């Protein structure tokens, strides 16, 4: 076993002893700094205008962090890949132009019955196609590599901020639009980083294609002269004008028809996230639900949540139907329109068949470029929704980060004790994120080897005090100080059991191979889990397999392996029976005789294992320390009663009465 110590401020076992930074840590250090100021809506705005302003800011907030990928501390391949993608897009447009010229030449050769040219052009076509296909294939690879690496960089940065300083836990304590952060990080962030690359590549390709082939249309089509009722009208660049008008009609129609697409897509994504969360909640609490027979109630809740998903999907389907009506109609008309427009010139002999087909090909390309919005509006809407959801999570993290640096609500300070003192709470007050006090003016000093019991009725803030000691609860005042070179270990009421082998579960939060198999088996033996020794290397859903009592025993096995200097027990024996609880506490005191213990518990029997008792009591809505007394070690009465009962069995019947009298006196 290594001698590494856990950081007292990093509860549960991170190791800040100078080990190599993870990818997430590196990403968090290079992420663009979050905005320093809280953006408040203009009070003169209507609710609708304020909501629109908020949505615009959310997109801006997303880019503040996401663009760091191309920044000084971003990915070294970001710019080379981006520039390479632009070169590939431009080169591919050149190949499209070559194929467009080939169209004119082949149809002219066919019209002229020139067999030699047809055969030659047929041979030329293959290199053009292979070149274009190769360029598009490489373009797809580079584009997806940018998407993958960008997503990795932003995800690592967000996860690093989410996990830092217990913010993943603190998000549950504050208000804000950050529900289902796991879905936002996994799914919304994927779409938010994939779609912009597709959009930018598509826009650049569409711009280059439109610019190139508008020139082709203008050159080929020339002017169109119409004569009607004795009037002659000449329209210069009639094919270009038609292409622009056609694209304007389809794009504006799409914008009008799909104006609610963003909102509908955003609501649908939120409904999907809530449905996934409900399913996960049922799985994680399967045992309790099964024991209570709550399947019908859970089914009702799932049906309700899924019905909302279906309802939002139906609304989204209506949006897709309306946009498909425009896009499908546009795709059918686009190839026909240029042929009909060029037909008069072809029939009068001023335009060859090759020019007609070249114009038709160029018109289709221009129309495709102008109609890019028509084809991608649904994805653009989906990206807007996903970017806003991940930006909402970022804003909540921004708020926590500002709170860590601000004294507006008061922050609990963390420092080091003087001398040999293991822990000191100096005028510690704990409050909610809105400033409401929970625990006030707590003054406690814990010396090495002391075993302090924190008692009080439910709701007096004992667990909140423990969170403040652990550094998970930041709001309040005063300070929590630990000895600089001591290891702190937390045992919560519900121990966390990670996925994987039982060996990993016992060693958590350190690596499974930090201890030998013999050391892990010895720890399990001491906590009464020796019957699991033959399953140490078994990969199983231990969180679902082990009972509540077994999980708490396993947590004590972790305690023995890590051999800390300070232990904080937060109802850590609540799932054990009284006899097992006594054995666990006796084992800890025997195996770790110098350890300092701080216990939060309701059971009075635990007093026998502690040297001090600190009592919290709620007065006028705030919990305060009302007593701090030394406990005199003594044998518990129940042990005396058990011994007398055993003696009674060995005595003649005539002596039973005197024994009962002794028991009666002892009760009194």
UniProtKB/TrEMBL annotation:
Cross-referenced PROSITE patterns: ABC_TM1F (PS50929), ABC_TRANSPORTER_1 (PS00211), ABC_TRANSPORTER_2 (PS50893), SIGMA54_INTERACT_1 (PS00675)
Ranges annotated as spanning the membrane: 77-99, 119-142, 199-220, 226-249
Localization: Cell membrane
CDD domains: ABCD_peroxisomal_ALDP (cd03223)
Topology of this chain in the membrane: Multi-pass membrane protein
Keyword Iron-sulfur part of the UniProt annotation: no
GO MF term set: ABC-type transporter activity; ATP binding; ATP hydrolysis activity
Residue ranges constituting the ABC transporter domain according to the UniProt record: 423-645
InterPro entries the record matches: AAA+_ATPase, ABC1_TM_dom, ABC1_TM_sf, ABC_transporter-like_ATP-bd, ABC_transporter-like_CS, ABC_transporter_sub-D, P-loop_NTPase, Sigma_54_int_dom_ATP-bd_1
Region (Disordered): 1-50, 649-668
Main localisation: membrane
Residue intervals of the ABC transmembrane type-1 domain: 83-382
GO cellular component: plasma membrane
Entry similarity comment: Belongs to the ABC transporter superfamily.
Protein's UniProt name: ABC transporter ATP-binding protein/permease
Organism of this sequence: Rhizobium jaguaris
């Amino acid at each position: 076993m290594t001698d590494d110590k856990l950081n007292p401020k990093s509860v549960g076992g991170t190791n800040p002893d100078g080990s190599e930074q993870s990818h997430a840590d590196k990403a968090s250090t290079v992420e663009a700094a979050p905005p320093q100021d809280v953006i408040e809506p203009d009070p003169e705005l209507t609710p609708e205008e304020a909501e629109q302003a908020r949505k615009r800011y959310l997109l801006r907030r997303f880019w503040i962090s996401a663009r760091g990928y191309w920044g000084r501390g971003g990915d070294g391949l970001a710019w080379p890949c981006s520039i390479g993608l632009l070169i590939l897009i431009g080169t591919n447009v050149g190949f499209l132009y070559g194929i467009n010229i080939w169209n004119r030449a082949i149809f002219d050769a066919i019209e002229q019955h020139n067999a030699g040219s047809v055969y030659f052009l047929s041979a030329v076509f293959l290199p053009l196609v292979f070149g274009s296909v190769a360029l598009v294939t490489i373009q797809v690879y580079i584009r997806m590599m940018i998407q993958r690496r960008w997503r990795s960089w932003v995800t690592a940065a967000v996860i690093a901020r989410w996990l830092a300083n217990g913010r993943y836990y603190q998000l549950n304590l504050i208000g804000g639009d950050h529900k289902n952060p796991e879905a936002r990080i996994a799914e919304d962030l994927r779409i938010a980083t994939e779609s912009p690359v597709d959009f930018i590549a598509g826009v650049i390709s569409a711009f280059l294609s439109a610019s190139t082939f508008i020139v082709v249309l203008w050159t080929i089509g020339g002017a169109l002269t119409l004569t009607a009722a004795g009037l002659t009208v000449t329209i210069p660049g009639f094919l270009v004008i038609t292409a622009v008008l056609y694209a304007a009609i389809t794009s504006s129609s799409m914008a009008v028809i799909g104006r609610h697409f963003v909102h509908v897509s955003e609501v649908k994504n939120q409904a999907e996230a809530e449905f996934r969360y409900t399913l996960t909640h049922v799985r994680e609490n399967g045992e309790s639900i099964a024991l209570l027979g709550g399947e019908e109630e859970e089914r009702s809740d799932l049906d309700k949540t899924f019905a909302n998903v279906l309802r939002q999907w139906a609304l989204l389907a209506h949006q897709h139907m309306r946009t498909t009506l425009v896009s499908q109609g546009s795709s059918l008309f686009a190839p026909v329109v240029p042929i009909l427009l060029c037909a008069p010139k072809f029939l009068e002999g001023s335009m060859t068949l090759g020019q007609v087909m070249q114009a038709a090909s160029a018109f289709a390309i221009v129309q495709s470029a102008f109609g890019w919005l028509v084809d991608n509006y649904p994805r653009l809407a989906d990206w807007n929704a996903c970017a806003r959801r991940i930006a909402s999570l970022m804003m909540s993290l921004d708020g926590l980060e500002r709170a860590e640096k601000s004294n507006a609500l008061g922050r609990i300070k963390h420092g080091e004790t003087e001398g040999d003192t293991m822990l000191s709470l100096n005028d510690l007050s704990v409050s909610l994120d809105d400033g409401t006090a929970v625990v006030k003016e707590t003054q406690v000093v814990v010396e090495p080897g002391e075993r302090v019991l924190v008692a009080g009725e439910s709701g007096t803030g004992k667990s909140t005090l423990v969170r403040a000691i652990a550094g998970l609860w930041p709001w309040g005042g005063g300070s929590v100080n630990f000895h600089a070179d001591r290891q702190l270990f937390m045992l919560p009421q519900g121990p966390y059991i990670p996925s994987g082998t039982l060996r990993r579960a016992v060693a958590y939060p350190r690596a499974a191979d930090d201890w030998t198999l013999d050391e892990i088996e010895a720890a399990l033996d001491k906590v009464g889990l020796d019957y699991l020794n033959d399953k140490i290397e078994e990969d199983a859903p231990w969180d679902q397999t082990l009972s509540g009592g077994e999980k708490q025993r396993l947590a004590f096995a972790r305690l023995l392996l890590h051999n800390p200097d300070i232990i904080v027990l937060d109802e850590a024996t609540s799932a054990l029976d009284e006899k097992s609880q006594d054995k666990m506490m006796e084992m800890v005191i025997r195996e770790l005789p110098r350890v300092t213990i701080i216990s939060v518990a309701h059971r009075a029997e635990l007093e026998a294992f502690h040297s001090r008792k600190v009592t919290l009591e709620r007065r006028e809505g705030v919990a305060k320390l009302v007593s701090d007394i030394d406990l005199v070690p003594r044998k518990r009465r129940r042990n005396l009663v058990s011994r007398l009962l055993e003696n009674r069995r060995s005595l003649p019947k005539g002596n039973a009465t005197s024994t009962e009298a002794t028991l009666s006196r002892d009760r009194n």
